[in-house]
Amino acid sequence: MKRETTNECCVSSKINVGAKKANNGRDFFRRLATEDDSYKLITPENMCNLMHFFIQQASLNNKSITFTKGMFVVFDSTNKIFEKFMEAKDQQKSGDGAKHVGYLKRLKHMGSQAIHSLIKSSKKSQLVESDTFIYVRGDESSHYHSERGSKWDRTREYPAYGMDIPGACTYFTIVEISLENEAFFILGLPSGFGHILFGKLPAVHSDGKYAGERIYIKPEFFGIRQLKDFVKHTQNYFSHVSRRYVCQLKDMQTKPGCSKEEAFRENIDKKFLDLWKKVLMTIPTVWNVDDQYMKNATKFGIGEIYRQVNELKANGNDAKVKDFREKMIKQYGEDDITVRKGREIIFTTKKLLESPLTCELLSKMKKC
Length: 368
Prior knowledge:
- By secondary structure, the protein is of the alpha/beta class.
- It is built from 11 helices and 11 strands.
- It has a 6-stranded mixed β-sheet with strand order 3-4-7-8-2-9.
- The relative contact order is 0.17.
């Protein structure tokens, strides 16, 4: 994607971000948000560029939430970006794999695919290459389960989708090892991701900063369309789930693998929920902690807890919630706290459209 010459200033890139890819991702995002036919630009390479751009912007957010591996949520005031993803999906000649949604159906399909490939290979026949890279995952994702509604809703109204990006965004980068030596590396998606999970969530506001559709986008190591990737994806999922539960144990909470960024991502920290429950139990007017507060706090996370805190404060319980509120703001920051579930990175279309360029190696860009 060729960019026009500009007098804009630039900021330094994060270590695992390709500067040129991030800038191409920035241009791609701007076109997605403003051009009607931009769905034609949705390719594996441009989606990889978009992840470089997002991860670069996450490193510049100056918030208390940091990004290593996890979830992006975009509040799209244009209501166009998800629509463009769907248009690109529907243009695929080989379809979107919707008829194979469901773990049993998918396994059966992958098994028949493997047998078909073996037969074709043995007969030295030409295999027809599929153009499908955007496919329906339906309810085959554990992310934002409650927000996406019932199983029926998660399958039909708010299904998950996936994009496989294997080797689509390879780029060269130069890293200085010492004053005399430089090393060349070939890299792809930042941090080695090869798949992008995405979907739409119900809107939370009709106007203001967070108006418009919510889109969640999560880089992952493996997709679920190919058998070898499906197996690795399943292994990663069970490893992540087991780590989340192990990290609740007191003796494990200080271990490196149990850092909040690694273990919880967009999920709300259970220890934080437990602390809020203890605070609620000290307030006389709270007659049923679970039904009145904890049910929604568990479902909707930090934003809902923050609303509850402010409601109780306004009702004369400032002394009871003051310390917890301060701890909450210190841990999660005040920016985006009203719409936050856990430790996800939150963007708005407006803010992304105002984002700076990333400084490219040997370029004549001026630093901001």
